[in-house]
Amino acid sequence: MISWLDIRNALLSGKPVLIFDSIEREAETDMVFYAGTIDYKKIAYLRKYAGGQICFVSGRLFREALDLPFLQDLIIKHPSIRELATRKPRYGDPPAFNIWLNHVATKTGISDSDKALTIKALSEIAALIYKGYMEEARDRFLKEFYAPGHVPILTSRGLANRRGHTELSVALSLITGLTPSIVIAEMLDEGQSLPYEDAKRFAIRNGLFFIDGVDIVAEAEKRGYLND
Amino acid sequence: MISWLDIRNALLSGKPVLIFDSIEREAETDMVFYAGTIDYKKIAYLRKYAGGQICFVSGRLFREALDLPFLQDLIIKHPSIRELATRKPRYGDPPAFNIWLNHVATKTGISDSDKALTIKALSEIAALIYKGYMEEARDRFLKEFYAPGHVPILTSRGLANRRGHTELSVALSLITGLTPSIVIAEMLDEGQSLPYEDAKRFAIRNGLFFIDGVDIVAEAEKRGYLND
Q1: Rounded to an integer, what distance in angstroms lies between the CA atom of residue A183 and that of residue A35?
Q2: Marked catalytic residue, from B102, B212, B225, B228
Q3: Which residues contact B139 (CB under 8 A, 6 or more apart)?
Q4: pLDDT in the model for residue A187
Q5: CB atoms near residue B105 (< 10 Å)
Q6: Hey, of A45, A47, A75, A162, which one would you mutate to test binding to chain B, going by the most B CBs within 10 A of its CB?
Q7: Total structural domains in chain B?
Q8: What keywords is this UniProt entry annotated with (chains A, B) (predicted)?
């Protein structure tokens, strides 16, 4: 039995959890923090122990409230490179990337403290949106960031449409009663993704929750979170 | 005296060099490989010892031959987020980002081997362009990649217009007689950019060239490479 309450408490206390998507998809494990708890030490931890791209993740409501396009939609409108955006990755899903940005108060956007600053501010925007303050959220969003920058925003298409780490971590937030406002990075080994068994061992050794995507999908289905 | 020939040989033999931009700009050191020599071990080395965003860099000719937009130009055309693209980073320069992409043969695009594959293919496109095979380069480019992906392309605006690591590494390629086809990542410390003295110490300890941006600018000026 998975204790969603224990997972909620782990995330709220600033611990990462590990999420494996599925053997039929990327077969990758992502390290996942609750964005509201992020600081530069956690960004450095993600760099060191995950190694993949550090992304801010939120849900469909975040995208709609801010009227964010998917990057694919911007590229497809540009004639000279549109062909590049007509193809999908080999695992079949469309990319979840919206835009890359930095907070205006960052120095270059790339250091751990700068990334933490950008992500922390994005988590405040997400909190406003999920509490219903759409206009205030949109005002702050347009004033406080510049693009392109170094933190990608990924937003969910809902588990009914896509079963990536973006959708899984948004569903996990909703199941555990948290704002969809998450930081993820893929766990890498030298050369390849960290194999399933190694990711599981990392979780056990470090006292972290390891969650199988299939369990999130089942619970999200039960609770009606397949489209968020 | 800087030996540009020795730097050329280091790059061609697959060793990284370190480039410091300027105390008046980012004040950051980037680790730089020649893209033609890249493999998954070098990507893992960049992740471990640099830590910043791993980017493919080329020159103005690359951008023009492929008719690549800057990402800023795509964002500014999208009404709901255009304001984000009207601002500059605090160090004053416009971003050098074009698009993020993956090679179609990658699995997810994010592992070291996948990134090496994408970058290796980009280096072949750059080689075609700088040898004058524009049409073949453009055909291959549009067929072999999809976007958005995980490797950003940065292209130079010329040192006369911008003095970032993008422009410095393109000028370094030209000075050393190499194709502008480079992989860079910022050197990070926990929390902040790796301080100048620490980056210099890293170079000495590992037998790597450490190059000051100001020396590249002076040499590029002498040889007429300020707009490439």
Answers
A1: 5
A2: B102
A3: none
A4: 98
A5: 12
A6: A75
A7: 1
A8: Lyase, Magnesium, Manganese, Metal-binding, Riboflavin biosynthesis
Total residue count of chain A as it appears in this document: 228
**CA of B5, closest CA in chain A: separation in Å?**
31
State the residue for tokens 């079963």.
Answer: A163
**Alpha carbon distance B31, B19 (integer Å):** 7
User: Residues B164-200: pLDDT tens digits?
Assistant: 999 999 999 999 999 999 999 999 999 999 999 999 9
Look at residue B91 and tell me whether its pLDDT is greater than 90. Answer: no
B132-171 pLDDT, tens digit per residue, is: 999 999 999 999 999 999 999 999 999 999 999 999 999 9
Confidence of residue B39 (pLDDT cuts 50, 70, 90): very high
Beta-bridge partner residues of A154: A57, A97
Rounded Cα distance between B62 and A62, Å, is 36
- DSSP secondary structure string, A171-216? HHHHHTT--S-EEEEEBB-SSSBPPHHHHHHHHHHHT--EEEHHHH
| CATH code of residue B173 | 3.90.870.10
Active site residue B91: yes
Domain that holds residue B55: 4-222
**Do the domain assignments include residue A170?**
yes
